Amino acid sequence: MKRVFNFIGGDFHPPCAGRYLPDVDPATGEEIAEIADSDAKDVDAAVAAAARAFPSWRATPAEERSRLLLRIADLVEENFDELALLESQDSGKPVALARRLDVPRAIRNFRFFATAILHAETKCHSMDGAALNYTLRQPVGVAGLISPWNLPLYLLTWKIAPAIAAGNCCVAKPSELTPLTANRLAELAREAEIPAGVVNIVQGRGPAAGRALTSHPDVPLISFTGGTKTGADVMAAAGPLFKKVSLELGGKNPNVVFADADLDAAVATSISSSFANQGEICLCGSRIFVERAIYDEFLDRFVDRTKKLRVGDPRDPATEVGALISEAHFRKVAGYVDLAKEEGGEILCGGKRPADLPDRLRGGWFLEPTVVAGLDCSGRVMQEEIFGPVVTVTPFDSDDQAVAFANGSRYGLSASVWTRDLARAHRVAAAIDCGTVWVNTWLLRDLRVPFGGMKESGIGREGGFDSLDFFTEAKNVCVKL
Ligand code: NDP
Q1: Cβ of 1: how many Cβ atoms within 10 Å?
Q2: In terms of pTM, does the model score above 0.90?
Q3: Bridge partners of 173?
Q4: Mutation pick for ligand 1 pocket among 157, 160, 225 (CB with most ligand atoms within 8 Å)
Q5: What's the 286 CA to ligand 1 centre distance in angstroms?
Q6: DSSP 8-state code for residue 378
Q7: What is the pLDDT of residues 364-417, one digit of tens each?
Q8: HSE of 34 in the Cβ direction (CA atoms, 13 Å)?
Q9: Is the CB of 467 under 6 A from ligand 1?
Q10: What is the C-alpha to C-alpha distance for residues 191 and 198, in angstroms, rounded to an integer?
Q11: Chain centroid to CA 415: how far?
């Protein structure tokens, strides 16, 4: 059985306590590796290695840091097929999606921040001949980076790339459920000759390794992506130590379809925004609101397309919906289907394990894409993040009601709005309380734009210079003239 160690100070080390966790392929239920079950001692060693590397890395010219990041990007690209397969095997996602989304985005993340640092500018405030102020942006030190299992390499590199591009050293903790691509990335970082200690990866469980990182006194910055409840734990640990914290948390995103929308495009993209990655993307539009005049037609077409989605072996390039991440998560998501029935909803399709899976997948965690209608917006199914292939569809009667429905959530991550009326698009986009509004599209990402959530979807913005600002401290220097 393959053993996944920690990457500390440029080398792979077994966990101090010698304990391991099973890593399971969610499509088959089989154990595929054992991963380090790290604790505070491993985190201490990683933080010490990062702190040792920091003085020299922060002094490394931006052009050299840029060159090294571009080298990692090239190596990720050279190992594209292997990384896509590993990601699919570890998370249950279709390999086609890993090839289309996860691995290309990991490459873009490194290239984007490698070149962004070459274009960074700083501010200068002149005081009418009395003094000149200028702002220095300096790296913070050891950055603690914690990422979830749904987009493992994509989200991990979205943190590592800006952190080290800005001159920090980092200790990253991937999800215990998806350690494999992070481990491969560590090998590639070594091959790229990133100096020892600049990137450290500690594998293991959140409450042990993750908590040790968020409460570590020598880690002044935490970038966390994960669930809202865990985000509160991270905040509680980091707050008393006055760490810089960025939290990218859960969502319950509205997808609002007006009667004047391009219905073909709205239906096609709503299929993706509902069920891509088995609905396990924080940005998925899980609450669909449709203007009453087209409600029946939208629903017919949407349900028809949903039933045709190919659920099955993630390794098959034709598969569109793979396995959920784990048994526990499958039970949680399936529990919401039962709850939807209890709350008076009608299951229009899906809601059960596919009947015709091949033998190889019998132990896997598959759920048919599920569409629910007839629910009250205030019920639990429409209020709580399900994070699986389950969406609700609800009619609305006016722009004001659409906005009220969209905002009737404690989350505020993203929204999609479908309309051909430009003025309405601007009005509704401005009125929805969330960090990103897509008009007539979904998941179209420009890496320069601010990304993050309002309300319980998070704190702070990452992306472009927002990321580089987060991973640096602003220092004002005032020179008397
Ligand atoms: P979790 O919050 O369970 O875990 C996220 C990460 O935090 C994992 O590495 C986890 O480790 C670790 N962790 C768990 N407990 C602690 C703790 N007490 N202290 C420090 N770290 C801890 O989220 P999931 O992995 O289940 O991911 C799904 C969630 O992520 C969804 O809510 C989704 O909406 C959100 N998400 C948000 C995104 C955004 O950009 N806003 C993007 C993608 C996902 P371990 O796995 O070992 O438990």
Answers
A1: 9
A2: yes
A3: 146
A4: 225
A5: 19
A6: T
A7: 999 999 999 999 999 999 999 999 999 999 999 999 999 999 999 999 999 999
A8: 10
A9: no
A10: 13
A11: 16
